[in-house]
Write a structure and sequence with these properties.
Helix content is about 35%, strand content about 35%. The chain has helices at about 35-45, 90-100, 120-140, 155-170, 190-200, and strands at about 5-10, 10-20, 20-30, 50-60, 75-80, 105-115, 140-145, 145-155, 170-175, 180-190, 210. Belongs to the IMPACT family.
């Protein structure tokens, strides 16, 4: 079985004040760089008037796949930014919490509203670390196994049997009924090849898999 990893159970936030400055730590699961960047943008749009919105994330640089040697073994991309705070005072402490807690597929953003008192590099580092830690505690850490995504596209004649197979496998999916029917599937890496084989067999090879 592909190795399990630690991640957050869902979205969460934590708020506190330090010498007049308000800090809000946000955290969310993210399976791709695109998902992480979208969450960062969401928080920036929620707090356009904030003094700083400091991001940090640890997400796979590419999707896990059963067709890749090593299966669920993927390179992690680690990113952080100080967003205008003194160098090393915010982004790095935020990322360090994610590293120390050994969580991945996760993105954090700490929003700060300046309260008029300079906290110094040490004070900032403690505050940004605390914001991520408390958001992590609020979200809860869970064990997850690597998943991959693929799309199965068929004509309407085959859509019923394909949907039935996907539903019976218990995986997450979205269906799009257009000129043809496309099922976007999220499946554990260890089960992906077997599911694809069942779909090919049920449709006599007519299913298009991407």
């Amino acid at each position: 079985m592909t190795d399990a990893y630690r991640t957050v159970g869902g979205r969460a936030e934590a708020r506190f004040e330090v010498q007049g400055s308000e800090f809000i730590g946000y955290i969310s699961p993210a399976e791709t760089v695109e998902e992480a960047e979208a969450f960062i943008e969401e928080i920036n749009e929620r707090h356009p008037d904030a003094t700083h919105n400091v991001p940090a994330y640890r997400v796979p640089a590419g999707g896990a796949s059963s067709s890749v040697p090593g299966g669920g073994t993927v390179m992690l991309r680690e990113y952080q930014s100080d967003d205008g705070e003194p160098t090393g005072s915010s982004g790095k402490p935020a990322l360090n919490v994610l590293v120390q807690q050994e969580v991945r597929n996760v993105v954090a953003v700490v929003t700060r509203y300046y309260g008029g008192t300079n906290l110094g590099v040490g004070g900032l580092a403690r505050a940004y670390s605390r914001a991520v830690k408390e958001a992590l505690d609020e979200a809860g850490i869970v064990e997850e196994i690597p998943h991959e995504r693929f799309t199965a596209t068929v004509d309407y004649d085959d859509s019923g049997s394909v949907r039935g197979i996907i539903e019976s496998s218990g995986v997450e999916f979205d269906a799009d009924y257009d000129q043809r029917v496309s099922f976007s599937v999220r499946v554990p890496v260890d089960e992906a090849d077997g599911l694809r084989d069942r779909l090919r067999s049920a449709t006599s090879g007519r299913v298009e898999l991407e």
